Amino acid sequence: MAASPPALDMCPACGQHSDAEVSCTRCGANLRVDLWVEGPVPDERKRFAAARGLASLGLPGGTVSRLKRDLARRADPVVFGLTRSMARAAIEVLGREGISAVARGSLPRRTTSPVRPVLGGIAAGLVLAGGLLHLGRQRRAAIDGEAGTARAVPARALAPTAASPAARSPVPLTTQEIANLAVGSVVEVTCGGKLGTAFFVDPEHAATNEHVLCGMDAPLRLRLKDGRELLGRAVAVEKALDVAVIEVPGAAAKAIELGDSTVLLPGDPLVFIGNPHGLDFTVHDGKVSYVGRNLFGKAYVQMNATVNPGNSGGPLLDAHGHVVGIVSLKMTSADGIGLALPVEYLRPLLRLPAAALDAQARWRNTLDRVRKENAAEVEQYRDRYQRPAIIEVGLGSRGGLYAVVLQRWRNGPSRLSITVDVRANDQTLCSANATIADWEQVEQILEKELRDAPDQPRLVWASENHILRDVFAGTAPLDLGRCALDRVPPSAVMVIHGGDQVDSPVRFPKPSIAAAGARIAAEQERARKIAREERAAREEARWRHAFEKLRAAVAGLEERRDKLKASADSSLPMDDSSRPRRELSEMEARLAKAKEALDDLERQASAAAVPREWRQ
């Protein structure tokens, strides 16, 4: 499906508007695209200028020489697996050179490297059944931030903001009262193409998520509720925890008091303020679902609330209007599940006085529990894929339906034959046999994915814990010609017979895709048959020519021998008869060699099972 830049805001699977870069926030579908030019670029100077412009964007594998070469042809995409913001920027660069380009949805494909499917599909799918999305919204092409350093804000810069327990009102506030209390302390944060939220923890310092930033030294633009727009910069960052502190000189803002997430209970009311999809200073409410939810080794506050891109970095407020967390993530595979990083993770960057002893004890208990749960989860994932499993199915860029298969190989991969079953209602509807000869190490794919899109917490966690170290991915061509496509229900899934189960079984492709795959497979089989027939015809011609040549040589030598023999027999006694006899002897030797070559050719033909008629 071709996509102009405006269409890149839509999910090709569910048709809904999506600002995400890698996977749809509504249905979890892969949003990466391949970049195609609508025709070869014959002009050498234009091709060089376009290649240089694309290379300056830092596209994956986008060297000037390769891009210049690929722009001269139309058979393959110019660049594979782009985020949508990168695709917009690339289309704009090409447009300035008068080159028309389109973005088409990425699918698993066969290349010189057997496994280069879109990794928003592969690598992310390895870790969780349901995806997660950072809630920083992309407005334009995002600027990838460098890994920030963990530096605490100097103690003199921040005044303690948490009120003592005795000073807190025992009476819960209404949502409106909490909003009126906190909205003046919330700011909209933008840099490059990113948009998020932050909240003031003292008059000139605001806290947010690290993934809202555009690098440690990139300037930030902050807009307050009173309309002021100020510049700020990050002064403390802890990338591993996804927290940051921004200095905003001259803000003179009202700070929000920090609370205690460890006293929260399921069902407690919550309020958060942010800028979802650019709708500034939006107030949401929800309830606590779980306190200390283990996710990638960190303890999150899980909430039942509608969170969206643009909420990242916003304050999560308890019933007393105190910050108990930083809104950070949402589940993309479910509605109304948000996750906030507890404020306790922020405290070390602020160098605040220690919390009360009982609060410290509760927090230590939470961290201990989460560490144990994380260790158990790591071991669980390290035990997966002992048998092959399908994680994705799609059309290859050169045609045909392919399944992406994973298996853990302790001593390196080898050729593998599999049977893929199409199942529904505990019944096998049809099957397809396939062989995987080429494999690629998933951990290498994972590292590449993180270089292209570093703000993916599930992939960072998988990389840090090496859960995919011995896992390899291969592509298996599927021939579904035996499946009655009109009888396969939408609920059907594809599994490997005797293989591992996955968290989210792969759905049978849409009928149009499956039919296209079957049609392409049939066309490929016809092409292979024609190729076999052409090879057989060439072989027949080669054998016939070899036999004809040797038989003609034998026949010619026999004719010359007979003439020499007749000449020797008819010579008079006074003639010098030694010459004809010598020539006859030489001819007999040449004829014997020719017959020996013919006999040798016969033996070769018999060993190769060459049909008798080819030897005539």
The whole-number mean of residue pLDDT values reads: 80
Task: Quote the distance from N terminus to C terminus.
Answer: 56 Å
Please, how many helices? 11
Percentage beta strand: 25-35%
Number of strands: 26
Which structural class is indicated by helix and strand composition?
alpha+beta
Total number of distinct structural domains: 4
CATH class group of the largest domain: Mainly Beta
Which architecture of the largest domain does the CATH hierarchy give at level 2? Answer: Beta Barrel
Helix content: 25-40%
The low-confidence parts are 1-6, 107-130, 139-150, 155-168
Compute the CA-based radius of gyration.
36 Å
What is the CATH topology assignment of the largest domain?
A: Thrombin, subunit H
Largest sheet: 6 strands, antiparallel, barrel
* Gross morphology: elongated
Task: Kindly report the spatial arrangement of strands forming the biggest sheet.
Answer: 13-14-15-18-17-16
Quick synopsis:
The chain is α+β, with helices and mostly antiparallel strands and 616 residues long. The chain is 30% helix and 25% strand.
Describe this structure in words.
The chain is α+β, with helices and mostly antiparallel strands. It has four domains: 2-106, no CATH class; 139-164 and 171-379, Beta Barrel (Thrombin, subunit H); 389-509; 529-615. It has eleven helices and 26 strands. It has helices at 44-55, 64-70, 84-96, 122-125, 175-182, 347-350, 357-382, 442-452, 457-465, 511-570, 578-607; strands spanning 2-3, 33-37, 79-82, 101-105, 132-134, 137-138, 186-191, 194-202, 205-208, 220-224, 229-238, 243-247, 269-274, 282-295, 298-304, 315-317, 323-331, 337-342, 389-395, 401-408, 416-424, 427-436, 440-441, 471-478, 493-496, 506-507. The strands form five sheets. A six-stranded antiparallel beta barrel has the order 13-14-15-18-17-16. It has a six-stranded antiparallel barrel with strand order 7-8-9-12-11-10. Helix 1 (44-55) packs across helix 2, helix 8 crosses helix 9 (457-465) and helix 10 runs antiparallel to helix 11 (578-607). The longest helix is centred in the C-terminal third of the chain and has 60 residues, at 511-570. The radius of gyration is 36 Å and the shape is elongated. The two termini are 56 Å apart. Residues 1-6, 107-130, 139-150 and 155-168 have low confidence and may be disordered.
